[in-house]
Amino acid sequence: MKIIVPVKRVIDYNVKPRVKSDGTGVDLANVKMSMNPFDEIAVEEAIRLREKGIATEIIAVSVGPQKAQETLRTALAMGADRAILVMTDDEVEPLAVAKILKAIADEEAPGLVILGKQAIDDDCNQTGQMLAALMGRPQGTFASEVTVDGDSVTVKREVDGGLETVKLAMPAIVTTDLRLNEPRYASLPNIMKAKSKPLDNKTPADYGVDTTPRLKTLKVVEPPVRSAGIKVADVDALVAKLKELGVAE
Ligand code: AMP
Predict the structure, then answer these.
(1) 64 lies in which domain range?
(2) pTM summary value
(3) What is the total count of domains within the chain?
């Protein structure tokens, strides 16, 4: 069984994003970029399924600029078998990515596509769901446990009230939540080995997909700066202050 793992190159989660001075977007010049953290969890889960003898091949896919090759090499160094870069300098939206992934899934016929639940740059949380709809296949989103048994996969989902367990007929789409696993670090020998693993270069046109954005960003602004707090002398002063502010009676 093949597993496709889509990995997105995003601004590193440790970086504090800066808004461009003209308000047109986030400034990505000279900013550290990394694999979307939820996608690292997806790669790890796929590797564990291969280690259990359930998966036979892991294909990492990224849609993005040439530099997204580095993200794919990271996935290969973690343990993916081969990679596909679908090169575009457009800012790709979830629907375009889902259409490209659908075309790749048609060619590769995977048993599972494991995506992150969301990319931390756009926080869309849409691509997996759109892919499931386009493929007409079941989805188990926000997975905290994935168990493959024959032709089906059981997914424990993190929902508001606790955990929901769903059983899906494969091929199926799974999206990862934070508690699914702890991704491994790539070892130096594996980073070296990853350099010679196959990486295909494609374009959206190869899959007949138009990536022109459908959304227009009107304005991006920094969040408001938190105003300074004040110190009060004792509990009575605190209660008086809260009453004054109208947050206590
Ligand atoms: P989103 O719907 O944008 O929050 O992204 C959800 C997941 O879809 C991500 O965690 C990735 O697994 C996948 N994904 C989104 N955009 C891309 C992309 N440009 N290339 C590869 N995978 C992507």
Answers:
(1) 2-245
(2) 0.92
(3) 1
